[in-house]
């Protein structure tokens, strides 16, 4: 009977790429970004130890109790959101089960995304056990950025048919632009890591008694700003070259999107520093970090892969000469 039920279930699953698979991939990306923002809300409301135990909320209760107040509700609510991510990730994985051979890329990415969620939950538990050690909290955030990266690639890969995913076509970007994209990837990673260190030196610790990393916030902010300026200039140059070389429209769009996100994130970062880190702007900056990661990954994917997202097979890799 179980074997029959499993066979019947698999017969109802997609045997080819469908809009449902793409929607689930998008839901995976959106949910990964949402949990970053809600995790930021936990820290910014000093609710990081609202549930003082893990995996239970308290020694005697799985859920938040009235004694824990609003902080307990906020922290427990963020923990509950993990189950939403699991449901979406499981649905994503199940939807590509029948495609696991022709579309191993989708299957492997789905497995990685699902495996990352419990791993991230365990790291979240370690942050509680270490009383919100800023280095552990920072690692928690960086793993979230890794999952955003995986989800972004997954979204891009779901745009392809099985035939397109196997074709060997020229890369979308000329060599100089691919080199700039590699620099953009490195600078984006550096900006995010330094941003985590700056956060660990700042006032929003997640709990009034939580330790900080004892680094000079002003100095770390200045160090963090240096690669931000380089990133802005590199992205601007990449956009200019994308139009000069008339690369595939999908690549131009991805670079313009990245430029908008970089400028917006830089403006929010400057404003929050100038205004002494108001909670609202810090939360917006956290959202911006996730969007920056996704936009950078999307641009690099589009320029480096042989299948630019959103382009037809006949238009791929057609790089024209510069316009003089």
Throw out a few tags for this protein:
10 helices, flat, iron, 324 residues, disordered C terminus, Heme A synthase, 70% helix, mainly alpha, COX15/CtaA_HemeA_synthase
Kindly describe this structure.
The longest helix has 28 residues, at 217-244. The protein is flat, with a radius of gyration of 22 Å. Helices cover 70% and strands 0% of the residues. It is mainly alpha-helical and 324 residues long. The chain folds into two domains: 1-166, no CATH class; 169-324, no CATH class.
What's the overall average pLDDT, rounded?
Answer: 88
Structural class: mainly alpha
N to C succession of SSEs = HHHHHHHHHH
Number of helices: 10
Brief summary of the model shown:
With 324 residues, the protein is mainly alpha-helical. It folds into two domains: 1-166, no CATH class; 169-324, no CATH class.
Task: Describe the protein's topology.
Blueprint: H1 2-12, H2 19-44, H3 69-95, H4 104-129, H5 134-157, H6 162-166, H7 175-201, H8 217-244, H9 249-274, H10 279-304
Helix pairs in contact: 2-3, 2-5, 2-10, 3-4, 4-5, 5-7, 5-10, 7-8, 7-10, 8-9, 9-10
Pathway: Porphyrin-containing compound metabolism
Membrane topology: Multi-pass membrane protein
Pfam families: COX15-CtaA (PF02628)
């Amino acid at each position: 009977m179980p074997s029959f039920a499993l066979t019947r279930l698999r017969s109802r699953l997609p045997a080819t790429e469908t809009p449902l698979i793409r929607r689930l991939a998008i839901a995976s990306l959106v949910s990964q970004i949402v949990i970053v923002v809600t995790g930021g809300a936990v820290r910014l409301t000093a609710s990081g130890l609202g549930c003082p135990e893990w995996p239970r909320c308290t020694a005697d209760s799985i859920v938040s109790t009235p004694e824990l107040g609003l902080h307990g509700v906020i922290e427990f609510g963020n923990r509950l959101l993990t189950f939403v991510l699991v449901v979406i990730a499981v649905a994503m994985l199940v939807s590509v089960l029948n495609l696991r051979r022709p579309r191993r890329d989708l299957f492997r990415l789905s497995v990685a995304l699902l495996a990352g969620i419990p791993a991230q939950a365990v790291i979240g538990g370690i942050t509680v056990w270490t009383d919100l050690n800023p280095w552990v909290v920072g690692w928690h955030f960086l793993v979230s950025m890794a999952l955003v990266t995986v989800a972004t690639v997954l979204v891009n890969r779901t745009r392809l048919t099985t035939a397109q995913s196997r074709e060997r076509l020229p890369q979308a970007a000329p060599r100089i632009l691919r080199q700039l994209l590699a620099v953009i990837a490195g600078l984006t990673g550096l900006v995010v890591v330094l941003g985590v260190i700056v956060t660990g030196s700042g006032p929003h610790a997640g709990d009034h008694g939580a330790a900080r990393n004892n680094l000079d916030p002003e100095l770390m902010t200045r160090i963090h700003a240096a690669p931000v300026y380089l990133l802005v200039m590199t992205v601007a140059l990449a956009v200019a070259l994308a139009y000069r070389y008339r690369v595939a429209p999908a690549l131009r769009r991805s670079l313009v999107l990245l430029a908008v996100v970089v400028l917006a994130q830089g403006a929010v970062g400057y404003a929050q520093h100038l205004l002494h880190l108001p909670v609202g702007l810090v939360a917006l900056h956290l959202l911006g970090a996730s969007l920056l990661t996704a936009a950078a990954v999307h641009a690099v994917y589009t320029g480096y892969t042989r299948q630019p997202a959103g382009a037809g097979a006949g238009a791929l890799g057609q790089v024209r000469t510069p316009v003089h």
